[in-house]
Amino acid sequence: MKTAMLTSAIAIAALSATAASARDQVQISGSSTVLPYATIVAEAFGENFDFPTPVVEGGGSGAGRKKLCEGVGETTIDIANSSSRIKQSDIDNCAANGVDAIMEVRIGYDGIVFASEIDGAEFAFTPSDWYNAIAAKVVKDGAVVENANKTWADVNAALPAQDILTFIPGTKHGTREVFDVKVIEAGCEASGAKAAFEADGLDADKECLALRTDGVSVDIDGDYTETLSRLSANKNAIGVFGLSFYENNTDKLRVATMSGVLPSTETIASGDYPVSRPLYFYVKNAHLGVIPGLREYVNFFVSDDMAGPDGPLAAYGLVSDPELAATQAMVEAETPMGPLK
Questions:
Q1: Model confidence over 167-183: pLDDT tens digits?
Q2: What is the SS3 assignment for 338?
Q3: pLDDT in tens, 32-63
Q4: Selecting from 3.90.180.10, 3.30.1330.60, 3.40.50.11440, 3.40.190.10, what CATH number does the domain 2-109+278-333 have?
């Protein structure tokens, strides 16, 4: 422990001595969902402060958190954007590399929507529909069987008789975690499959998340623009998007309801829409006050002018956090997060 603390102290000292001359721009990486929000803030920051515009890159939530945890120093990033909450394994990895203080900043909320080509059929989904469409195994006549459903009407007679083809977030996306938990796991339980797996002595958690490999469920490793291009080439497909991306492409996409609720800023803020998630970024506290503009950028991001209900992030599609004032106070105090419970 003493060796790790000494290593961290040396790294911080070296950072303090060289950062101003070696790097004067805030470096940010991570979630493609948070990327447009961070870009809006970075550009406004560069225009309104006497600091260079921060460099914002994508790459995925998990990849961003991994980069954040590579260590302390000018060659490492300052902030990781994330559309899913940091994992304890990330925190442990950070600590092992001398990053022993991380600030968790929740910027607001986003929803995950299910959309098809603008001129396509209308859909009204439930989590059970999605589970029974793309899960590897489903329950039929009380027994667990391999999923042989071909059309959405096979899944639910109230849905269109359209071939099942879905484009879902790849496993590296923060969006995938929310999709797995709030759609696939929820659908597994609601459909009775989870109880059937348990009754058969199977690992229900593992079985619920096993998806078909016959081409009806396609992982998209790129951002939402790739999903949109896939839909353009496959008119009968359904894609998974973030709410803000959909709201900026309503001329191209038709959105479905989920459990009877239409996704919108209002239904997410009220908690009525069932598939929503908080968005975050994670700050390396050792870089605060050392990398020029980092402290100011973080405070600016969560200000009412940017992240408030009347700010440009809300105009782009972010659902403002009702507890934004508490986040602002935490950021002002530079309070590091503790272990996850």
A1: 999 987 777 888 999 99
A2: coil
A3: 889 999 999 999 999 999 999 999 999 889 99
A4: 3.40.190.10
Phi then psi for residue 63, to 5 deg, are -65, -40
State both tokens at 55. 């460099």
Q: Is 237 helix (H, G, I), strand (E, B) or coil?
A: coil
Q: What is the DSSP letter of 180?
A: I
The DSSP secondary-structure symbol of 54 reads P
166-192 b/e (C-beta count within 10 Å ≥ 16 → b): bbbbeeebbbbbbbbebbbbbbbbbbe
pLDDT at position 22 is 61
Q: What is the DSSP string of 55-107?
A: EEEEE-HHHHHHHHTT-SSTTS-SEEEESSPPPHHHHHHHHHTT---EEEEEE
> Among 57, 45, 40, which residue's Cα sits nearest to residue 297?
45
CATH superfamily ID and name for 111-276: Periplasmic binding protein-like II (3.40.190.10)
Confidence of residue 122 (pLDDT cuts 50, 70, 90): very high
Question: How would DSSP label each residue in 104-139?
Answer: EEEEEEEEEEEEEETTS---EE-HHHHHHHHBSEEE
Distance, first Cα to last Cα, the chain: 23
Residue type, 278: P
pTM: predicted TM-score of the whole model, two decimal places: 0.70
Question: What are the residues facing 81 on neighbouring strands?
Answer: 30, 281
* Residue 260: how many other CB atoms lie within 10 Å: 10
In the predicted model, is pLDDT for residue 3 greater than 50? no
List of residues 6+ apart from 143 with CB closer than 8 A:
196
Give CA angle at 28 (1, 316), nearest 5°: 135
In the chain, % of residues over pLDDT 70 = 94
Burial degree of 317 (CB within 10 A; 0-12, 13-18, 19+): buried
Is residue 151 within 8 Å of residue 175, measured between CB atoms? no
Tokens representing residue 271 in the block: 């908690």
